[in-house]
Design goal:
Elements: H1 7-35, H2 37-40, E1 44-45, E2 48-49, H3 50-81
Antiparallel strand pairs: 1-2
């Protein structure tokens, strides 16, 4: 008989996923848009430099991708740990 995974394993996987999403969020919004902007200023994207693009457009697009990724991954985690909505 297969043993059911514990709640601690589920929450550890959940916290790991949230941490990954927050690190990506911080890297894109703070790292690329603010700290690395001088390094990215020579690369043109749509008529503006890449640092400005990340600050204005890229971070929003990355945030939208993160939202959908988090929802998709949480649904699969819920199924894996047997706490999904049936």
């Amino acid at each position: 008989m297969a043993e059911k995974p514990s709640n601690n394993e589920y929450w550890a996987a959940n916290i790991r996923l949230v941490t990954i999403c927050l690190v990506i969020w911080a890297l894109v919004s703070f790292g690329f848009a603010i700290l690395l902007r001088p390094l990215l200023s020579g690369i043109a994207v749509g008529g503006a430099d890449l640092g400005f693009w990340f600050a204005q457009q890229g971070s929003i697009l990355v945030f939208l991708v993160l939202i959908f990724f988090y929802a998709w991954r949480m649904n699969s985690l819920d199924k894996q740990f047997g706490v999904d909505e049936e």
